[in-house]
Specification:
The complex is a heterodimer.
Chain A: E1 2-13, E2 16-27, E3 31-35, H1 42-49, E4 57-62, E5 65-66, H2 72-75, E6 78-82, H3 93-100, H4 109-118, H5 132-144, E7 150-154, H6 162-175, E8 180-185, H7 188-192, E9 197-202, E10 205-211, H8 212-218, E11 220-226, E12 240-245, E13 249-254, H9 262-269, E14 273-280, H10 283-297
Parallel strand pairs in A: 3-8, 3-9, 6-7, 7-8
Antiparallel strand pairs in A: 1-2, 1-4, 4-5, 9-10, 11-13, 11-14, 12-13
Helix pairs in contact in A: 4-5, 5-6
Chain B: H1 2-14, H2 16-35, H3 42-71, H4 89-118, H5 127-150, H6 155-176, H7 179-182, H8 190-215, H9 218-233, H10 235-238, H11 241-251, E1 262-265, E2 282-292, E3 299-310, E4 318-322, E5 331-337, H12 338-344, E6 349-369, E7 375-377, E8 381-384, E9 388-389, E10 392-393, E11 400-408, E12 414-419, E13 425-426, E14 445-453, E15 460-481
Antiparallel strand pairs in B: 1-2, 2-5, 3-4, 3-6, 6-15, 7-8, 8-11, 9-10, 11-14, 12-13, 12-15
Helix pairs in contact in B: 1-4, 2-3, 2-4, 3-4, 3-5, 4-5, 4-8, 5-8, 8-9
Classes of the chains: A alpha/beta, B alpha+beta.
Chain lengths: 298, 488
Amino acid sequence: MSAICSHNLSKSFGRVDALAELTLEVPDRAIFTLVGPNGAGKTTAIKTLMNILRPSAGTAEVLGKDSRRLGPAEFARIGYVSENQELPLWMTVEYFMAWLKPFYPDWDDAWAEDLLRQLDLPRTRRLQALSRGMRIKAALASSLAYHPTLVVLDEPFSGLDALVRDEFIAALLERSSEATVFISSHDLGEVETFASHVGYLESGRLRFAEEMVALSARFREVEITFDNPPPLPAPWPQAWLEPASTAAVLRFVDSRFDPDSTPSEIRRAFPSARAVSINPMPLRAIFVSLAKAARKAA
Amino acid sequence: MRQTLHIFLKDVRRLRYDMVVVLALAASFAWSEGHTGPLYALEYYRLANMAGLLKLLLPLGWWYLAAQVVYGEPLPGDCQFWVTRPYRWKSLLGAKLLFIAAFVNLPLLLSDCVIVTLQGFHPLAYPAALAWHQLAVSALLLLPMTALACTTKGLAQLVLVSLAIPISLLVLNAIFGVGGAIAVRAGSLWWIDGLLIAIVLLSSALAIMVVQYRARRTWLSRVIAGVAVLLFLSVNSMIPFERAFALQSHIIRPRLDTTSVSLALEPGKARPVATEPVPPESVRVALPIGFAGAPSGAVPLVDQMTAELYPPGQKRPETLWVAAPSTGPPTYSMMLDRRLFDRVKSTSVRIHLTSYIALFGDAQTQRTPLQGGPHRVPGLGLCDAGLYQGALILIRPGQQTRVTCLAPFRQPARALAGFDNSEQTEKAGFESYSPFPAEFGISPISSSDWQLTYQAGASAIVFTTLQPLAHIRRDLDIPDIRLADFTY
């Protein structure tokens, strides 16, 4: 069963298509990261899935329920934290937790205590007096204390310092075995370490969504050294992105790497190659390549 | 219910200081209004001024409190933390309404009881009026204010919208001349407009609150608010006078036989004395109209009279307003455009008069001494002329003085007053034929005033209260009349 499943989900603001035909499936217990540049439509996607915004077209199901009909019963199982959430700033951290407790039948006092301690939150201080990072931690603590089935985090790391970020991720990972986590982020480095699935959103469109392992496996940086550089093969294969050549070296990114067939394909295309080096790529480099390719295509 | 109470208690905690201020305002208002008397001594002036100021501040305080309690969980926008929490919309709306009931309605009820008690009346004698006052204040003030807060993000936006609405109404009035629609019908039938406005405000406020709390469709709510404003503007045209009068006639079933009542032209009647100058472009025509066949003990009062003048050779008649006399012989006058008058003055023309008449009866007359006031007058409340300070009379004969009666919740439809050695006069302002037990206002105390000229030797004030027994329409067709014979 999928925790989140959308079909052609779209959201327009006037003439601007903030989200266009998002078709997505987030498997149960996955840590799914929706990445993309600023303004790609990540927040709109999340708000539409959370029934904060009404979709202009398409459908979505969250925890098996039509997203437009999400109500108290579903929200008792969802933990949602957003960077731009307006919290009740007049409350102290302690009162904030106590205030929310009666809303959730599965509220776990001991776990709430642990979270406050683990995230080093000052109980008697008002939310208004907390830094931005501390407020996001308070929001996270209040969203995890009832063992949600689905945790949805919209850009939770923006502006957080390294220490707070690590505490945040640690608290999150501790729950990851019992919940599906759906995170949006434009910071690829943050999510690379713990995401199980990744989706790439650009200009409101989902370019791809797949398991991290599969994504890492299919992207390789290829470097070919020549004695005498030959002309580039025509037509240039679509899966080979960003070709760049210097005097004796040709580099490109292979987006459909297959350890059985790719080396021989390269040899066939460049029979005069002196050396071929095929290297795995970090997530950041993969997305930079994809973004550049998309921009070029556009 | 548990969630409702949980949210309610959170709001109480959040707004505890604000509540104390508004409750203090309500208590101060109750004290000052309760101690204000119908006399005009200095201490009453001070109290009346204080009560007057608090009458303005108190609704502002309610407005602030109602808005703030809504803003505890703001409705427009997409960044509120609570929208992804397991709130039930009915619990949330219930909590907000409970807060308003507890900290606005309940203090208002207590304040009504305190004021009425301090004024010397027993509040338990007016249960319907107490309830009606709550309903009227809620429908016309509290719920519209709350609904407006439901469509705005914060106090600043709320204040801007609250200012924008009357300003846009004024602009509309200036551009399209919809002033007649904006103004509530003055006169005895004003309560029909008031009721219609209350229904429009109450239903749109409830619709907005349900839409906002259930689905947070702010644009839809704003459209509802816009429609409510348009309906408010067109209240007057929705129910023209004749329809309002017909409704009034239907509500008060005639308690006497009115079939014999008729209008008649009585050319032999004395002409009125011209007291006001006539503009040069107009001509004033006085029509000596009399009533015949009024049942014994019934006093007719014309609420409105219109005339349709049919000039020779003109297909459409000219409609003219006919003014009823305030004093003197029952001669009804109308202003004609001088060009029209010059065209028809020497020929016979046809005039059709339509008169909307209230028949009053059940007269109750009571005398109260001038000294030792204020005095309790059944049906009118606590009355005084403030003429004496101990045994010392404060004014000279021929001078005018004001007589005031303070009554809980409402005044009788029609009341006259006069010194025992002079004629009685109608009270200032207008009669109200409202069938409701309370008038609309912040205070539960309603006052009637008369301007009387003191005559030497007067020892008492005579009050007469009358009840409307029937509302009838009568038409009179005058086939040929020479207007030049009736100018003055």
